[in-house]
Amino acid sequence: MLHLSAAVDQPSAYDAGSYVELARLAERGGLDFVTLGDTFARPGPDALAVLSRVAPATTRVGLVPTVTTTHTEPFHVQAAVATLDWVSRGRAGWRIDVSATEGEARLFGRRHAAPGEALWHEAGEVADVAAKLWDSWEDDAEIRDVPTGRFIDRDKLHHVDFEGTGFSVKGPSIVPRPPQGHPVRVVDATEGHARRTAARYADVALVRAASPAQAAAVRDQLRAEAKEFGRDPDTLRVLASLLVDLGDGEHAAEPGHGGGGPRQTAQGPLYRGGPVDLAELVAAWHTDGIVDGFHLTPAEPRRDLERLVNGTVALLQHRGLFRTFYPGSTLREHLGLARPANQYAGRYAVTGGAS
Predict the structure, then answer these.
(1) How far is it, in rounded angstroms, from Cα 86 to Cα 206?
(2) Distance between the two ends of the chain, CA-based, in angstroms?
(3) What phi and psi values does residue 56 have, to the nearest 5 degrees?
(4) How far apart are CA 306 and CA 296, in angstroms?
């Protein structure tokens, strides 16, 4: 199954309607999910809040905001992501990122910037405790028995008692278990420190690679490390990340690539050409088993996403390589990932009785 996703970032855009428009366009094309970036290093709207506004205006496309794990409270992060899963009816993801600069650290005043290895180790711990907190409510913990006045079965709430290197969390969460069980966790695994965290905790790993060989090597490494961590490698989706500029029309294809790319730039691998040759690139990399799909960032958001959906995606659908409708309703279903079992179900709970 080919997986396609797109970024809906729009520099200096604060109007929710523009994000709704792009998300609906991606949904019309059947894309698995859209991402919206966020960072403490530059001004802009809160990505998670924006996609919470987009959620009721869409019905199927997955919604994946960037939420950093540095300088933020893990308990609050997991509750916010779980809430997005509830308001979107099971379409939430979470793109995990870190804040590495001293300027970002000064915004909070709690600590100095840390090395990348330490930051990504902490990010892994946050991803781990988030899953535990999402499981701290069993699926049927809510009784809602009006005659007896019992709302929650306390035997089905669980303390997580998590001790990390820089934080501790007792739990349980304040938000019931999300519709997906665990909202989808996404990590850009291009850099070495992030790659190990992705192999252990991510459902989707993004890789910025300018050649099939580079992408295949990273995918193989991620799958091997996932297996070392006791995971089934087939539960990790690896998507190639490309910046796409579809504004210059069709170009003659270069050997092994679509027209005009991808080429390595300061912003990452760039494809510049037309929708037809981009479809050829996507089809070739996927058919050869190099990646499980693509995450595409339009150079010009509205123009390029429209050409992507109406051109590239339509061609892939015509060739039977990409779906023409959503077979399910949740992001996990789009990605072909099972809903995780609750790790605490059947174990000793917070306390006996109900309340």
Answers:
(1) 25
(2) 45
(3) -70, -10
(4) 12
